[in-house]
User: What shape does this take?
Amino acid sequence: MEPISHFFYSDRLKLQFWDYGQDHKPSVVLVHGALDHARNWDWVAQTLCNHYHVYALDLRGHGNSGWAPGAAYTVGEHVLDLSALLDIINDFPIRLLGHSLGGGIVLHYAGVYPQKVHKAVSIEGLGFPQEHRIHGPASGRVREWIENIRSLEKRHPKSYPSLDAAMARMREVNPRLTDEVARHLTLHGTNWESDGSLLWKFDNFARVFPPYGHNIEDAVEILSQITSPTLFFWGLESFLPVPEDDPRYQSIPNRRLIQVPGAGHWVHHDQLPLFLRESATFLEG
Assistant: This one.
């Protein structure tokens, strides 16, 4: 069965979430990554529905959710949106699962509201590596952000002449995707133009990370407040380094890391059976 679409309001934005059903079971909320959408969780949700009531959020500026005025896409604002949705679901302490940016949002929520989280799963969700320029001097971060925003203001979103062309672009980002998965992700991640071409649904301004909100010392303090058991997944073929020595990872008291061979950044697509098996065991334990 298809999940049911619902909308709610946060920070004066109209945001969408998907309800996969199974009333009266414990709730699990899934949070996707940057430039993605909630329906990337369909295969995960279908399995988790055997034991949980599953929800998936379209982040602001993504999927069918509203675009933020002024390119307001900080981690804090995403955590604000998640908090509004979780209060609507109202099934605390709750289980949370996020990928990439969504994994970071889940961890920050768990650090800000530790008493409200039962279990947290994060797929490569620690943010940019320590050496990334987003952690550089503040003057440089602000200057780069200004220049990127002004450049985006002059840029027109790229369209694709056919579904196959958009799917090809999807598979450039993750060559491990099967045709079936790439088609599904593309159909749910695009809108049709009047000339038959396709545009990605996400707001182009969501590409630019604001110069504030990525402070490692702040993240260490927030993540150190997490009291729930926390499970990390990391693809051994990912472009992000395994974070064993990262102070943000080290700050989480009750954590475990599963390193996944044959997987890149999208572990839940690249090694779905392993991901489902380990996540289910963790969430039930």
Observations:
- The longest strand covers residues 13-21.
- The longest helix spans residues 138-153.
- The chain is about 35% helix and 20% strand.
- The chain has a mean pLDDT of 96.
